[in-house]
Write a structure and sequence with these properties.
Pfam families: DLH. It comes from Petromyces alliaceus. One of its GO terms (molecular function) is hydrolase activity. Keywords: Hydrolase. With 256 residues, the protein is of the alpha/beta class. It has one domain: Alpha/Beta hydrolase fold, catalytic domain (Rossmann fold, 3-Layer(aba) Sandwich), CATH 3.40.50. It contains 6 helices and 9 strands, in the order ββββαβααβαββαβα. Strands 1-9-8-7-6-4-5-3-2 form a 9-stranded mixed sheet, sandwiched between helices. α3 crosses α4. The longest helix is centred in the last third of the chain and has 21 residues. It is globular.
Length: 256
Amino acid sequence: MSTMRATHGHSQACCNIPPVVSSGYVPKGSYEQLGGMKTYVTGPEETTRGIVAIFDIFGYFEQTLQGADILATSDHHHKYKVFMPDWFNGSPCPPEWYPPDSVQKQKDLGEWFGEHMPQGPAAALPKYISDLEAANPSITSWGLIGYCWGGKVAEIVTSSEDNPFKIAAACHPAMVDPSGAEKIPVPYILLASGEDPAEDVKRFESNLKVPHHVEIFEDQVHGWMAARADLSNPRVQEEYSRGYKTVLEFFDKHWA
């Protein structure tokens, strides 16, 4: 499958994305304590499929929570229960550190990233899934979606020997490593922005040996499906919706 550029076309939709709320979104889910972490939970109680969502460095932004609600309710064929754990324990990266245009901001940002390497959550996810299964015995199959920093987590965990996921999505992933694709054994979708390194994205795709979909949304910024989505912009809102629709269609087709 060749790397696709953003287009308006779609195959026959398996899902009906609800209207995107540009501001003041009220999340449909609730917060629970699961696996030792505060976790946003959304979706039906009776389902056999669960999705773990790994947010970006900014944590629980309303754009990201709205995305979780979309994933939980918009597929006609499957209903998913979505779990978004707080890997940062209430201390996400402060948005005011961006852009890092001062020595102090650069220092603070470097220290924050040093304390929040994606390898940590990737190693912890198999145990977290076991805890989720104990609390949600009806769920027997798990998918994963990661945004930016969380996209790197998705790459690491799905390429590990302990990968507990049947399918995965990486949305505008950070630190794309083409060599990581070679070890991924499950269907994988990667949606990149126009700001992401296109050559790394293309090489990543060429190394995937599993069913996959890789697409570059040329006119979108890094983060357009999560915290950096300016949903007051009609074009961003359109591509935000299309991004989630693309993920759901891929999951519908390839989640065995």
